[in-house]
Amino acid sequence: MDLNGGVANAALREDQVPIVAGLPGIVATMTDPRPAAYGSAEFLRAWAQQPAFRLLT
């Protein structure tokens, strides 16, 4: 993403939405039909450093 751009889609739990909303690189968040955040590589790095970060599979 750092080299060619793009936007990542990160699936979230309901309680994670307020946490990611203030992170750098966030493009958008949504809660319907499922919570998700869209952001840049900067967002992904910031989100992965948060204590509430969980990788959903």
Question: How would you characterize the overall build of this protein?
Answer:
This protein is α+β, with helices and mostly antiparallel strands. It contains two helices and three strands. It has helices at residues 17-21, 41-48, and strands at 8-11, 26-30, 36-39. A three-stranded antiparallel beta sheet has the order 1-3-2. A hairpin with a 5-residue loop joins strand 2 (26-30) and strand 3 (36-39). It starts with 7 loop residues before the first strand and ends in a 9-residue tail after the last helix. The mean pLDDT is 89.
Alpha-beta content class: alpha+beta
Question: Assembly type of the shown chains?
Answer: single chain
Number of helices: 2
Name the helicity range.
10-25%
Q: What ranges have pLDDT less than 50 throughout 5 or more consecutive residues? A: none
Tell me the strand percentage band: 15-25%
Molecular shape:
globular
Mean pLDDT, all residues? 89
The biggest sheet amounts to: 3 strands, antiparallel
Order of helices and strands: EHEEH
According to DSSP, the number of beta strands is 3
How large is the radius of gyration?
11 Å
User: What spatial order of strands do you see in the largest sheet?
Assistant: 1-3-2
Instruction: For the record, give the distance between the C-alpha atoms at the N and C termini, rounded to a whole number.
Output: 21 Å
